[in-house]
Amino acid sequence: MERNLNLANSIFAGFNDKNGLMICGYEWGWSKEDQKLDESDSRPTVDMSIECTFSNKSLRYGPSANTWPYDKNIKKWFKFWGHPLNDENLGSDFDKCIIQTNWAYTSNADIESYNRFLEKEAVDNFIHHIEVLRPKVILFMGSKLINFLRNIDVWDRFTAIVGPEIEPLKMVQKTDFDGTRFKVYFDNFEQCQVVCLPHPSSSRGLSDEYIKLFEPELGTIITEYKKQKGIL
Questions:
Q1: Looking at residues 84-97, what average pLDDT do you find?
Q2: Count: domains in the chain
Q3: What are the beta bridge partners of residue 197?
């Protein structure tokens, strides 16, 4: 199954193969360092058969995985919310519950147009992963992803899988903060809970202190998820 999916870490039966916690961004990045490696044909070969968690991708991708800003920030966020990840070997049962993917299968250095994420190929990729993995919680990493989800070309296909929306979309913006105040969105469905956060590595002005203010909401969601999975 894993070979047919757009994933950054392994599938663990009974943990993230169904009812997992999905981290979903826009698409795979392609940094300047990546571009140099590709141009010189010196990118290290990755053995995709090596098991790894999101928490410890170095098992598969090597030590450089520990330096990736996107991942590093997400790991910090889990710690801020009271649920630190375990990067020792394959970690805990909770680490095995996390599955990382992206809305689109593409890889680019920059996003010049967001419209392409609503093209059929990108939407099909996202819906396919929802249909196969049936995540219980989705953490969108990018503020526009909640708008993509609510697009008519996506919404009906998504709700056909996870059930109807059971609470109206809720926007939370922490006002008791002296800095850039990003909006975070919460959307609940019959079989899935969606949270849409700012992009971890490209949101200008986003601070650790602001993300920490969402501990009451995110901490509770993750605690409830662990209870449902029987891993608390």
A1: 98
A2: 1
A3: 141
